[in-house]
Amino acid sequence: MKTPLVMAAFGAPSQTHSPYRDIDEQILRRFPGHPVYWAYSARGRGPKQPAQGEAPSNSVSEVLRTIARQGFKQTIVQALQLLAGKEFHQLVIECRKSPITCHPGMPVLYNPGDYQKLAACLAPSILGRPDKAILLIGHGTSHPSWVAYLGLESILRRRFGRRIFVGVIEKYPDSETIPTEIVAAGFQQVCIIPLLIATGMHYHRDIIGPAENSWLRRLQSQGLEVESIDQGLGLQPGFCDILLDHVEDALRHTEEQSFSASNNG
To answer: What are the pLDDT digits (tens) for 6-55?
Structure first.
């Protein structure tokens, strides 16, 4: 039996069906014969998705128990998160408690090559708006991995120039400072690109919502004309390849460990 693959997403409101469906289809094409399961980690719970195995309303631990009952001895658990932040480390803890051997796949932005690949995915959206500031907005985290957002901004600026800004919904860098920075840089127009795999609740409430503290309202309060791309990263061409490369790395590591164990045995 081929090693099963568990895709562990973080939250999934009804608007996010399409990105996960697309990711699921690409997984099945790239890893034929591997059973695919969907689960939701941490606070997230969501509707059923068109994937093999368990309905994604199940938690990671529930899916792992199901896989164990089906006779599998090990599995890959792929994090559908951008950074190795708090939720990823919670996922690793869940994997350690599993009744079978779990090999976590790394988050999307794990090594320098991942950042360059993401830049390539975003290039059409950025280059197609040469006169606008480009603002990428992620979820944010209190974990020390928050500095990755500043690293991403630096890498994107090297490629596309200083009209790139990166902010987050929670913590830092936030909407209280970046809008004024955009205006101070001489821009009158800005395009928001959500740095989220799927444009769910956070996008519609915290980024483009009507509340005074939403990103949209704070940008507009500075006199900026705002465009927003209503599409998560999961639908950007090439993005899923970054994610599935991490699945492949985890599978390779699993095979190497199995080969080493059989030789030592």
So the answer is: 999 876 544 445 788 899 999 999 999 999 999 986 454 443 443 444 34
What residue type is assigned to position 26 of the chain?
Q
Write down the CATH number for the domain with range 5-107+239-264: 3.40.50.1400
What pLDDT does residue 18 have? 72
Query: Residue ranges of the domains in the chain?
Result: 5-107+239-264, 112-231
DSSP string, 193-219: EE-SSS--HHIIIIIS-SSTTSHHHHH
In the chain, the amino acid numbered 99 is P
User: Token pair for residue 175?
Assistant: 């909407």
Sorted by sequence, the CB contacts under 8 Å of residue 265 that are 6+ apart come out as: none
The class (CATH top level) of 112-231 is alpha beta
**Mind giving me the DSSP string for 134-191?**
EEEEE---SSGGGHHHHHHHHHHHHHH-TTEEEEESSSSS-TTTHHHHHHHTT-SEEE
DSSP 106: P
137 beta partners: 167, 194
- Summarised one tens digit per residue, pLDDT across range 55-69 is 445 899 999 999 999
